[in-house]
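pinned: reference chain
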Amino acid sequence: MGVVSVPEAGHPDRLRAPGRRPRVVLVDVFETILRVSALRSRFVDVGRPEHECELFFTRALRDGMALTLAGGVRPFADVARAALRTTTGHSLSEDALDHVLSGFGELPPYPDVEPALQALARARIPAYAFTQGSAGTARDALDAAGLRTYLRGVLSCEEITSFKPPARVYDWACRQVDVPGDRVALLAAHSWDVHGAVRAGLVGGLATRLEGAVPDTVVRPHVAAEHLDEVVAGLIALPA
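pinned: its structure tokens
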């Protein structure tokens, strides 16, 4: 894949990372590794329709991104709690809010995740969970899912008071793993997350199982396939 210049507002023009096999892979957590739709039953538990689950999570992500742009963003837990109140029409007690939100620590994994992480381990490519939620919640959920042993660590952009996808978030993550950005891959099921990573100079791997295809509005990922294990196979197959 050729190297092309990708301008980014507020940052020097960056070169698109060449399509090379990554030395490290960052894996998004919510909806890439763990299935947020499992929270639907908790909405029913507190007397709310289960379809509010998707609206709530989408609103939480939107609000976190908007507050990141505007300045003064709060931690994911605070943003999610406010989004849950709004989504449910301010009808839930604090205990009911706690019941729904505590489900983030018990989310089940998608079936394509363990094969993907196993393939990275066999290829000796270190993998890190990369979340905008709290690192502690992600660790609890990954432990409960039996997946944390495949991961070198859990990185949370709460440490730099930001949500994805500004470039500084991916730059920070690359510094944490001590590998240049063009040799780090971001693996996610959200095209906007992969878009942000590619524009920041990382290798992008998109699992299209949520969105069905690569949207026309994002930069092309280096590898795209329906399932996470297929994307990992594509990343491993890239030239060294």
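why pinned: The first helix runs from residue 40 to 45. The chain has nine helices and eight strands.
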